[in-house]
Amino acid sequence: MLIEHKVCYVPGTRIISNLYKQPIFLSIMITYKQLCFRCKKNYVLVSGRNKFPQCYECQKKEMNKEIKDKKMKKFFDIPEEFYKENAFLRNIKVYYLRTGELSEKQIEAFKKTVNNLKKEKK
Ligand SMILES: [Zn+2]
To answer: How far does residue 41's CA lie from ligand 1's centre (Å)?
Structure first.
């Protein structure tokens, strides 16, 4: 269900100059609210395609499992509110807890998202 959607430009997106008649590349991220697929009570803010969005409440239990790897523990040590408001960060953490690994791309995307959230808070 699409209740509200906003279009925002991802910070750091490179806009190629049209001086040389090159196309302008803009990556657009659309975020919208979707009903949690598990409890069907809370809305989840999702960006991109997410068929099975879950709210913070539903993922909390799974997310609070102990991380044994010290490096990863530090990696996931971000303000709890970030997890509350960002479904992507929750999914990465849950994915790590399930599989015990993350790809470099996932790590990069996680860091980028955290940095963007930090900027927003300022
Ligand atoms: Zn839920």
So the answer is: 6
Cα of 93 vs centre of ligand 1, distance in Å, is: 17
13 with 31: CB under 8 angstroms?
no
> CA end-to-end span of the chain, whole Å?
31
Mention every residue, 6+ apart, whose C-beta is less than 8 A from residue 22. Answer: 16
**Phi, psi torsion values for 82, nearest 5 degrees:** -65, -40
Does residue 27 have a pLDDT over 80? Answer: no
Per domain, the residue ranges of the chain are 32-101
Contacts 24+ apart (CB under 8 A), 18-22: none
Q: Higher-confidence residue: 74 or 14?
A: 74
Tell me, what's the pLDDT at 48?
67
Ligand 1 midpoint to CA 2 (Å): 17
